[in-house]
Amino acid sequence: xTPTLIDISxxxxxxxxxxxxxxxxxxxxxxxxxxxxxxxxxxxxxxTHAGAHADAPLHYDNAGAPIDAxxxxxxxxxxxxxxxxxxAALLRAADVSAALEEHAGALPSRVLIxxxxxxxxxxDPRYAAISAEAIEFLAGKDVRLIGVDTPxxxxxxxxxxxxHKAVYRNDMRILEGLLLDHVAPGQYELIxxxxxxxxxxxxxxxxxxxxxx
Length: 213
Prior knowledge:
This protein has three helices and 13 strands; from the N terminus they run ββββββαββαβαββββ. By secondary structure, it is α/β, with parallel strands linked by helices. The strands form three sheets. A nine-stranded mixed beta sheet has the order 1-13-11-5-7-9-10-4-12, covered by helices on one side. Strands 2-3 form a two-stranded antiparallel ribbon. Strand 9 (145-148), helix 3 and strand 10 form a beta-alpha-beta unit.
């Protein structure tokens, strides 16, 4: 079977949901291809956490590395997609373990968790967060990157960021805001390097899965 690419990045538009109070996506055409102008050029404004994005350690610890300083290796390579679609505010280690029992083959060091049947187009304050114990469970299986189809690993109201702190303790990496509605569970190759935004806490990614032959 010829490998195919699956785009798992939602489009960035003015309607892209962001955390309440964060910077909404805006774009404006600054040069217009017409008359004496030979090109179209635009400018954009957005949060570093817009759409599919990679959190840097700096996002959740002032001593952490910014996104331009992180190793790119965790964002590219073999990946497992698992489904944990249930009406729960917090996914536990047992939920993740049960999903992994249905996964065929060795577990790679990158795991993406689909929690939505259909990702909402508006801000969802009730998205499924990932518990710190689930992060520790995955770290114990040598997982180096965890990706989710929600805005964050932690609940929107969290002030203690337990899941992010568990990621930091285990030197893992995070992808958030992925679009996994159309992705079946299984083995893939992940390609999702973050933009090289110097000194910043996160960066958008164009996340892609490649099916395996």
